[in-house]
Amino acid sequence: MNKYIFFTIHLVIFFLQAGFVYADFYPGMQRRQKMEAVANSLNMIEHRQERIVKEKMKEDQSEREAYLEKINRRDAQENVADRLAESKIYRPPNKRSPNPLVKNKPPRRKDGTAREYDPESHFEVGLEHSYIRYKEPNVMKEKGHMTGLFAVYTYKRSDNDHIKKLEDLERYDNWPNFYRIDGKVSWGQVDYDSQGTGSLDGVDDTMAEMRAVAGYDLPIFKNIEFAPYVGAGYRYLFDDLRGVTTTGAIGFRREANYVYAPIGFDIEQRLKRGWSLGVNLEYDYLFYGRQRSKLGDVDPGLNTVTNRQRDGFGLRGSFKIINVSDMWDFYFEPFVRYWNINDSDTSLIIFNGTPIGLGQEPTNNSTEYGFKVGARF
Are 215 and 253 in contact (CB under 8 A)? Predict the structure, then answer.
């Protein structure tokens, strides 16, 4: 019995000691676990901060490299522009053009090399041939073929920026950037026909024209340039109607002079393999017209009658096919030109100093169809 009591007491004492030991050990274990969790969190935060710092340094390095590359590219462009200017390949840009390689690109051949002439200007020369039909309703008509020469000089001071919105047109750089002077002379023979005075074939005609315009060269779409323009023009036509018609009527020389304002636009689209297409449309507003009829060819006693023409207009259009070669651009350009002039003022017809009547140039219109073959360089 005593043995069982003694064993029970020792067993109780053992459990009590084990409880005291666990009570002392458990709080310490919890503290260690908490400290380990806090340490792990701090390590994670530290690694994250290091990663953020490395990424930031990498971004800063990329920005610095991009900036240095930009500076080097700009310096290279300026050096190239200086060398081109010194070699007189093209004219240096004006003050409005901050980037010479963007605003004044030298013209290129198909292989990408620069042409050795001034890109800010170019010449055009060529031949033209046309069929013209002149008509005074209910009075007379003339028709025949004309052949002539033409020349064009265009000065282009810079390339305008791309136009993406209306505000772009107000930029200082996008001012009129090209100026063009063109002239032509043509000659030929026409056939005269009238219900009242008969007919006469082989009438010599000569026509001359001179124009000057200024305009914008606006690259609105990719590879397409739209160039509106306005200016002043002069047209002269000499009709040598001297001779005797089939009814015995005697003809006389006539001169037509027009001063007008051309208002129009050019569109040119660059294609692949050195080809381009162009379109021109134009309205001509008549400012002043003067018709001179040399009636002295009929009888020396008659005067030369001069009639003022106040109302009229012209229309013209063309389609151009262009091929770009190494130094020349060759093109073929069908065209149509139309004039419509109203009745002129009346003037006295005088015979040997005595007025015998009034003379007037009636309403007339002319239509000319033809084509041009030219070279641009």
Answer: no
**Of 286, 291, 152, 184, nearest in space to 232 by CA:** 286
- Rounded alpha-carbon distances, angstroms, from residue 148 to 129, 184, 300: 6, 7, 33
Cβ neighbours for 297, distance < 8 A, ≥ 6 positions apart: 242, 250, 251, 252, 253
117-376 is classed CATH 1.10.8.60: no
Domain boundaries, the chain: 1-87, 117-376
C-alpha–C-alpha distance, residues 132 and 67, integer Å: 64
CA dihedral 64→66→69→75, nearest 10 degrees, is -90
Q: Which amino acid is present at 77? A: Q
For 310, the 3-state DSSP assignment is: coil
Residue in 214, 312, 216 with CA at minimum distance from that of residue 260:
312
The pTM for the full model equals 0.68
Rounded distance between C-alpha atoms, residue 301 and residue 24, angstroms: 148
- Rounded CA gap, 314 and 344, in Å? 16
Cα→Cα distances 92→82, 105, 161, 283, 328, Å: 8, 10, 18, 35, 23
pLDDT tens figures, 90-127: 444 444 444 333 334 444 444 444 343 344 688 999 99
Contacts of 194 (CB under 8 A, 6+ apart): 139, 140, 141, 245
pLDDT tens track for 55-101 = 777 777 777 777 777 767 766 666 655 555 554 444 444 444 443 33
